[in-house]
Amino acid sequence: MTAVAAAAVPAGVRHEVRATRVVWQREMMRFLRNRGRLAVTLAQPVFLLLVLGTGLSVLVPSTAGTGDYRTYLFPGVLTMTVQMPAIGAGASIVWDREAGFLREMLVAPVRRGSLLLGKCAGGTTVATCQGVLVLSLAGTAHVPYDPALLATLTGELALSALALTALGAVAAVCISRVETFQAVLSFAMTPLLFLSGAMFPLAGLPRWLTVICLANPLTYAVDPLRRAVAAHAPAAAAPSPGRQLPVAAELGITAALAATALAVAAHRFARPG
Amino acid sequence: MSGEVRFTALPVGPAPGSGFASPYAGAGESDAPAAGRGLPPVTVLARGLRKAYPGVEAVRGVDLTVRAGETFGLLGPNGAGKSTTIAMLCTLARPTTGRASVAGADVTTDPGAVRRRIGLVFQDLTVDGDLTAAENLRFHADLYGLPRRTARRRVADMLALVGLHDRRDSLVRTFSGGMKRRLEIARGLLHAPQVLFLDEPTLGLDPQTRAQLWEHLHYVRTQRSVTLFLTTHYLEEAEHCDRIAVIDGGRIVTEGSPADLKAAIGADRVAVRTADDTAALSALRERFGLRAHAAPEGLLLHVPDGASFVPRLCAGLGVPVLSVAVTRPSLDDVFLRCTGRTIHDADGVR
């Protein structure tokens, strides 16, 4: 009898992987079922690209080849697109806590790190999917639909999404109230985006702002996207504020950030009450 | 429910009083020493369980012994330490001092084993409204690592058990409070736990739904060999239990079956309305040697045999009697006797 029971609940890696996958699956189901939320989170970057980008392209005449300010803005808009759902994954941890569902997960015989990994994988997938949807608007920003470019951009977006989701998770495990979480993130995310080179080139900023920009993790998420786009549409190019790092180093910084944030979040999350 | 996995004599805890001297063996490794004495094995055992939070001592030394198959109720007012006790038994909170074992595993040293062997129905609703009933259960099956085929069958079985089979593919947010509760019970039982913990399972439900839920719980007990461990501050709910422990201020103040506890009071409750309560109070004291106290329903007193006392009272009181009500002792009287106040008063204070 007990042998059956023991076999019914296998310990070990496969069980943890399955737990991670089901948490990821739940995020996917909630994403696909909530079309309204999808529309709202996509509306802002699309609005920014089509309205603000078009309006400002009159003010900012194109200096290099084809394209205009919209081309410059495109990598930033992509980053912004993944930023919101990635943070949303963190918010879903806080919501689950508030709604009580988190307790159902916490009392299960699995490592809390596996649960957190599932949550972050879910946030990353959702964010990347939304990024790909906005990527389909490349033509409106005079960015060519080159398969290699699109693949590079998708990969880089996925990495940024992972780092941002992990950062959101760190905030979520440290903050237990939904209101506080939303206030903290909306306060932090807008300046981070502005100072990442997403909206305007960082070269030529006052020295103190340049320092902040170079310390801003989003800078290293936006710049590889920009350089990939610029290779095909020179209007996206921007002069670098300092000595320019190789793309691999920038991606490495983002990956390291993601790994650190995941480790910190998992560590905090695993603490028993 | 064909091919059901049933848990029978799993590792057997020591008999009450023997503390932790008898070592717990791993699942299925020990014979049942208590079986010889004809008692079911102990599934929940707590000794000197304490939990202190900064500034508050929520639980101050709780001893519990619950045997397999029992429905055990922890009865107490809000803030008595019920939820904290359950949280420690379910490994969601670490005891400050003291020890506890659940389903043969120590909650501090082997929380993983405890978690696999228990089900939990939380105080607040914890089903996901954006998923269907079946999806909620499948999520749980994956978290608990049930083999897929077993999971499929058990999801169907459990939904049938709690009467939600026809709603299996409805989004849970369309469910009523009672239906969500039933779904949580189904979920708590999905991985065939030895003990199902229910923390205030009927909180926030209307009386009719509450009664219905209890019908389901009783039905579950006829179908599964599972120990139910629940907390409540509803006295009528405690009546459903085989045994209850009354907890107040983080301590167990009394323990036993509802009938035994009521019998131990040994007295019926008599509520008398008179034309002059002050005169009646002194008459009761002088002529009957009884102490009464004023309550909203009249003067309250306790006598061994209420029915035969009423005629003597009416004849001998000397004050016009307007009405007399005799009630058998209730759990409220048990609570009053043990704590000096009614459970409703205690709820109000906190």
Automatic annotation (TrEMBL), chain A:
GO biological process: response to antibiotic
Recorded GO CC terms: ATP-binding cassette (ABC) transporter complex
Record-annotated ABC transmembrane type-2 domain positions: 36-272
Any one GO molecular function term: ABC-type transporter activity
UniProt entry tagged with the keyword Transport: yes
UniProt superkingdom: Bacteria
Annotated source species: Streptomyces klenkii
Membrane-crossing residue ranges in chain numbering: 38-60, 72-95, 116-137, 157-176, 183-202, 251-270
Membership in a protein family: Belongs to the ABC-2 integral membrane protein family.
Protein's UniProt keywords contain Cell membrane: yes
Protein name (database record): Transport permease protein
InterPro entries: ABC2_TM (IPR013525), ABC2_TM_bact-type (IPR047817), ABC_2_transport (IPR000412), Nod_factor_ABC_transporter (IPR051784)
TrEMBL record, chain B:
Location(s) in or outside the cell: Cell membrane
Membrane topology listed for this record: Peripheral membrane protein
Domain ABC transporter: 44-274
Gene Ontology biological-process annotations: daunorubicin transport; doxorubicin transport; response to antibiotic
GO CC annotation, single: plasma membrane
Major location category of this protein: membrane
Protein family per UniProt: Belongs to the ABC transporter superfamily. Drug exporter-1 (DrugE1) (TC 3.A.1.105) family.
PANTHER family: ABC TRANSPORTER ATP-BINDING PROTEIN (PTHR42711), ABC TRANSPORTER ATP-BINDING PROTEIN NATA (PTHR42711:SF5)
Entry protein name: ATP-binding cassette domain-containing protein
Origin species: Streptomyces klenkii
Lineage: Bacteria, Bacillati, Actinomycetota, Actinomycetes, Kitasatosporales
